[in-house]
Amino acid sequence: MYRPTIGLEIHAELKTRTKMFCDSANDPDETRPNVNICPICLAHPGTLPVINREAVRHILRIGTAIGGTLADESIFDRKSYFYPDIPKGYQISQYEHPLVAGGTLAGVAITRVHLEEDTARSTHTGEESLIDFNRAGIPLMELVTEPVMRDAETAGRFARELQLLLRTLGASEANLEKGEMRIEANISVSADDEFGTKVEVKNINSFRSVERAIAFEIGRQIALIEGGGKVVQETRGWDEAKQTTFHQRFKEGSADYRYFPEPDLPKLFISEIPEFAPETLRASLPELPWERRARYAETYALKENDAAYLCATTERATFFDAVAAALSNDAEHIVRAANYIVSDLAGIYAKRGSEDIASLDPTAFAKLIRLLVANELSSRGAKDTLLLLVEKGGDPETLAKEHGLIQSHDSTVLLAAVRDVLADETKAVEEYRAGKKAALQYLIGKSMKAAKGAGNPSLLESLITKELGK
Prior knowledge:
By secondary structure, this protein is α+β, with helices and mostly antiparallel strands. The protein contains 15 helices and 17 strands. The protein starts with a strand and ends with a helix. The mean pLDDT is 91.
């Protein structure tokens, strides 16, 4: 029996106006190459870096949110390596004295959270390599977990929770597709309580790929050991097309980077900066994802899965809170609203292939729920009106009236529809008279359809039973 051990190293580009050590713009959406650059991020001789205060604040707020220990004193280090994407020949990072030590997130212990600068972006086309320095020097968070995870699902859950936390704090958009969040997994397997040989997997660009890459690598290492082979410490990439990992290079150790304190930057004395005081940082935090999930469960008695879905993105949570406020925090209405968001609205977005809940008017959605609870709309009518609301916007009552979805309470009009159904559905009528309750529901459904979804179910049931009781 083999025991997997997994640790994650996650980088995220921070949202700041300028880069980490210079005043070049930090604009991840810039498509023109080499426009957000200056002598500092191009490593011209004689230039000196200056620490970005907002980037430090982001890391300290992240550390506060995860319950980490904030450094009283912190320094930057030079991490030496040669590659064209870092022209200085070293990266300014942190090693022995990170800004944050410890903490937990999603039940996973965290080793450290520190700051460093991003590298330039390399593009390789045939025999030619191009370098875009727009990304060089962008503030980069690196978070390292303890090697305590045992399966791919736990790792994927942790990475998703970290992305949500970063977005909630406004620290990073953390889009994996844009490279704003990059996940590296360290994986080993062992037949005993000792650690196995660690393999690092890079080039993972989605949460699903994180889980697949880890699961594949666990299987690969077990098969290698059982076949008489030996796992070597290396860096491997993830091939999305083949769903396999592949060798990139043999893994360096910390000694290979020749870390030493950055002589051009001063030591940071965090406790001497008032805005970085622990109580000030705590007061600056918004409601955190796990706090919001607990509030939804406690205040509205939402199911755990429903609360998790609503809190999975900041846009959903913001929308739901606005809907709850528009419904005057009425618990019955809010539970119904949550059900429609989690099932029906989610279904609409799934068919469209994209979710744009931020464009939906929460007040209009709340009015739709009121119409449903007041029995002005049937369940079917509410679903159809919701689709119209997503596609067209506007007032749900107006949309429902325009499409004949408002429930009719006029027994004279509905009676004609009921009599037509009973005349056509003779088999169901016989089954009802024979005592089959399902036949009544079938006849109500047919009558609803005949009334084009605008028939009140309770009134239709009364009319059907009265007609068949004659």
